[in-house]
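Table S2 (text version). Query chain:
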Amino acid sequence: MSTLPDMATKSTDELWRDYKIRGSKSARDELITRYAPLVKYVAGRVAINLPKSVDEGDLIGYGTLGLIDAIERFDPARGVKFETYAIARIRGSMIDGLRAMDWVPVSVRHRNRQIETAIKNLENRLGRSATDQEIADELGITIEEYNERIQDLAGSAILSLEDVWGNTEDGDSPTRMAEVRDERALDPLDEAEWASRREALAQCITQLPERERLVITLYYFEGLTVKEIAYILNVSPSRVSQLHTKAVLRMRGALAR
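Corresponding structure-token output:
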């Protein structure tokens, strides 16, 4: 008498077939278990700008909901790598959960918009990246006060490179470049739009001050952690967070123009 193979011994492709074709709940549960490390990975990257008061367990809980949603919606026949699709939805779920908690003080949100607007207006006039002193002057504050505000944002604001496509006039609105499109789509308008976005993003990165550009490149494109970047730059992890925050604010302003 033959027995069905245990789910844990099946290949991932077999599990996808069992779940998507046969509707196997046990296959779905095993897929969640196998891809669970993605949630912890994304939680570590989302936490770059979160204060210690935010529990990592909350992030993992929100992210797990995103993983489940990704598994339910994913279509293996489209040829898109699941990890790429899932990471976007996991992160989006975490951000939605954090925003629902509304833990960011109103004063911090207001300062975020002030700095972003100042950078946008200043760099529009200058036609180049503004220095910290120039931004402080635009805000009518001292360089010390400006650095303090950046430190507050680095410790409180949810800022990420993925958020630069959001509505920059509303700093509170959920913005996710993470709504993953069908990589096999042939719509010329869709392709042209994303090509334009990639070009604009690349242009923004090249115009960043050197250290900010290095942080963005190492973090998002090389996959280094904050601690690893801090070691390379010979600065503290908090300084890396500040550089990351400045870069994202600067890029949001540039793309708004």
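Notes on Table S2: Residues 165-186 have pLDDT under 50 and may be disordered. The radius of gyration is 21 Å.
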